[in-house]
Design goal:
Layout (H helix, E strand, L loop, with lengths): L14 E2 L5 E3 L9 H21 L13 E8 L10 E3 L5 E8 L2 E8 L4 E9 L8 E2 L5 E6 L2 E6 L6 E5 L5 E4 L4 E6 L8 E6 L6 E4 L7 E9 L5 E8 L2 E8 L5 E5 L3 E6 L3 E7 L6 E10 L4 E14 L8 E3 L5 E3 L9 E7 L4 E3 L6 E7 L5 E8 L2 E8 L4 E4 L6 E6 L5 E6 L7 E6 L7 E2 L6 E7 L4 E8 L3 E8 L6 E5 L5 E6 L5 E6 L6 E6 L7 E2 L6 E5 L5 E6 L2 E8 L5 E2 L3 E5 L14 E2 L5 E7 L6 E7 L1 H8 L5
Antiparallel strand pairs: 1-7, 2-3, 3-51, 4-5, 5-6, 6-7, 8-9, 9-10, 10-11, 12-13, 13-14, 14-15, 16-17, 17-18, 18-19, 20-21, 21-22, 22-23, 24-25, 25-51, 26-27, 26-50, 28-29, 29-30, 30-31, 32-33, 33-34, 34-35, 36-37, 37-38, 38-39, 40-41, 41-42, 42-43, 44-45, 45-46, 46-47, 46-48, 49-50
């Protein structure tokens, strides 16, 4: 749930972040002296140049400043979320970063000529917090405050509202009067590109994804020098492209088939992130020559820096200032380790399996002896089967991206989402014993994820994309050919779950302005019955059909229900509370319940939030030009 941000400019207690080390050609004793000594060097250089000119001798060109590196240590950076965490002012003097401490997110600002970081904003933990970004003069910061895009003067003052906007905001303030950002203005809308006056007002839509082409979101806009084009990232068919949008013609051009978070820098390069093969939370910063006048890439990409941290969703922790200061967080380890646990109705836990990888979507077989689970193997996801009796884990799929498996009522088959090409994930069916190849069941636009399989051969699935951002489909497996039906709605709807008797469907909908759990009759006509209060995700029926479970933040809620002869629901009550993992897309449920309704299979994080280090590299453009000479 979104919560109000309390901006505490210069009021919060400063957090001491002492320097750790330096490496440069000059080898200064302390990094805090780097800037003062650089200024002294410039003054001395100016005096010498004046003497040379006085003597009638042409001065030599100034020598390149030495590459200087230092570290801001012990920063608890959020590790597993979709949020962007680093920003640097255009002049390279200020760094803003986002941390988590005791469940609270905070923005800190660190000036490079200071030894402490100042709290500039505090807000409760949210799954998708936005990135802060600076004004061209470095005096203002823009951020998302509880669904409102705001700007605040860093030297003091109250935040100024610019417009209403939902999560996922990333932006670029390209001139004194125009801000470009990616986000969505309505629940269910895909992330799109907008611009707005720096004084606020109604945002202007510049471009929106085409789900028929497999596009699911536009991100990371940067207005290019001259103001006639915007650089941005496109999520398409399970990968990311870098494109440029002409503001004069409204046309898009693909610049890089693989890459994201691209930034144009004055050296004539695009700097961007690219995932490292075999590394889930590490990526490589790349560079390629770019002709700003023709808006074309020239030459071949060159790797610049390996081991830059990225989230499991691929967000890179790096930023570059206009004057050539690079800040980044190095990645470490192999990713977030998670395990499967049993949780009873009182919240007591016990280990289920010695599986310590990144896991999602556990599903128990109808007889309760086996479960399926999505296992992340570095950058890939595949479905595995765990035998609860023999305690053996074996792969069910081994190639590509395969997720969200659902058992057939007889326990002999699995239906799952698989990504066969650029059109996005589609639904496939395969027997557990692997006797035949998987069969593709759905086609058409959008990305498809199965969510439920009824006893009479109906499969509910989510079709991501379209006008609302997500719709519920029903796939009939009876007869020779599967038939599809889409449940039309004005709002985003997802995660349809059939009741055990097949007459009702629980699902989530955005119709109230936030996601809530509802029940509707299926397939008959009838109204929607609200189930959750003040937010709800991940509905799941008790196998008895007499209870509905759902999640609201860290709370597992239960609602006693009656399904025959009519549907009635009682008031929700708290069953237990705990910090168990969500599916990061939230379009399916990330837990399951046993046949007797007494225990839950949950995904629990095993790794603690790790200490991060922000690495700062001064005069990085010289290194960039050395590693990637501009190709004209």
């Amino acid at each position: 749930a979104n919560v109000r941000i309390e901006v505490k400019l210069a009021l919060g207690e400063p957090t001491a972040l002492s320097p750790l080390g330096v490496s440069s050609a000059a080898q200064p004793a302390l990094w805090t002296r780097a800037i003062p000594w650089s200024l002294a060097g410039l003054v001395a250089g100016a005096l010498i140049a004046g003497l040379v000119v006085w003597n009638g001798v042409r001065p030599s060109p100034p020598a390149a400043q030495p590459l200087t590196k230092f570290v801001i240590p012990a920063v608890k950076l959020l590790r597993e979320d979709n949020g962007y965490r680093l920003a640097i002012s255009p002049d390279g003097r200020r760094i803003v970063f986002r941390t988590v401490q005791e469940g609270t997110n905070q923005f800190y600002m660190r000036s490079l000529d200071d030894v402490v970081a100042t709290t500039i904003a505090t807000f409760q933990e949210r799954r998708f917090a936005s990135a802060p970004f600076f004004s061209p003069d470095g005096e203002w910061l823009v951020f998302d405050d509880d669904g409102i895009l705001k700007k605040v003067l860093l030297m003091g003052g109250s935040p100024i509202a610019l417009c209403d906007v939902l999560g996922g905001v990333v932006g670029s303030w390209g001139s004194a009067d125009t801000i470009f950002f990616s986000g969505n203005l309505e629940i269910g809308q895909a992330n799109s590109l907008y611009r707005i006056s720096a004084a606020g007002g109604r945002p202007e839509l510049l471009a929106t994804p085409n789900p028929d082409e497999g596009e699911s979101g536009y991100f990371d806009p940067q207005i290019l020098p001259g103001g006639r084009a915007v650089l941005f990232t496109v999520a398409i068919g399970g990968r990311n492209q870098v494109r440029v949008l002409s503001l004069e013609r409204g046309e898009q051009r693909v610049l890089l088939e693989v890459g994201k978070q691209a930034r144009y820098v004055e050296t004539g390069h695009l700097v961007y992130g690219q995932a490292e093969p075999g590394a889930l939370i590490k990526g490589t910063l790349m560079a390629v020559s770019f002709d700003l006048a023709r808006l074309e890439v020239t030459g071949a990409p060159v790797p610049l820096l390996q081991g830059v941290r990225q989230t499991p969703q691929g967000v890179f922790d790096y930023a570059v200032s206009d004057n050539g200061t690079l800040v980044y967080v190095p990645g470490s380890g192999e990713g977030v380790e998670q395990s499967l646990v049993w949780v009873d109705r009182n919240g007591r836990t016990q280990p289920l399996a010695e599986i310590q990888r990144r896991l999602e979507e556990p599903r128990l077989s109808p007889d309760g002896t086996t479960l399926s689970v999505t296992v992340w193997n570095r950058e890939l996801r595949n479905i595995w089967i765990y035998d609860l009796t023999r305690e053996i884990l074996t792969p069910f799929t081994t190639e590509g991206q395969n997720t969200r498996a659902i058992w057939s009522p007889d326990g002999k088959r699995l239906i799952f989402g698989s990504n066969p090409g650029p059109g996005g994930s589609k639904i496939f069916l395969a027997p557990i014993d692997g006797s035949v190849d998987p069969e593709q069941l759905t086609t058409g636009p959008g990305t498809h994820f199965p969510t439920s399989w009824s006893s009479d051969g109906l499969v509910a699935y989510v079709r991501a994309g379209g006008a609302t951002g997500g719709s519920i489909g029903v796939l009939s497996l009876e007869g020779d050919q599967p038939s599809e039906q889409l449940i039309e709605a004005q709002y985003e709807e997802r995660n349809g779950i059939f009741s055990p008797n097949g007459q009702w469907m629980a699902f989530t909908s955005s119709r109230s302005g936030q996601f809530e759990v509802y029940v509707r009759p299926y397939p008959g006509q009838g109204g929607m019955v609200p189930i959750s209060i003040d937010g709800g995700l991940e509905p799941m029926w008790a196998p008895s059909g007499r209870e509905l479970f759902y999640r609201n933040g860290t709370q597992m809620m239960v609602v006693p229900v009656q399904t025959e002869p009519t549907f009635k629901a009682e008031k929700p009550r708290l069953l237990f509370e705990g910090s168990y993992s969500y599916n990061f897309t939230t379009v399916t449920s990330n837990y399951d319940v046993t046949a007797d309704g007494q225990k839950f299979v949950m995904v629990k994080d095993m790794a603690e939030q790790e200490e991060g280090q922000i690495h700062v590299v001064l005069n990085w453009f010289e290194e960039l030009k050395r590693l990637a000479p501009v190709d004209r």
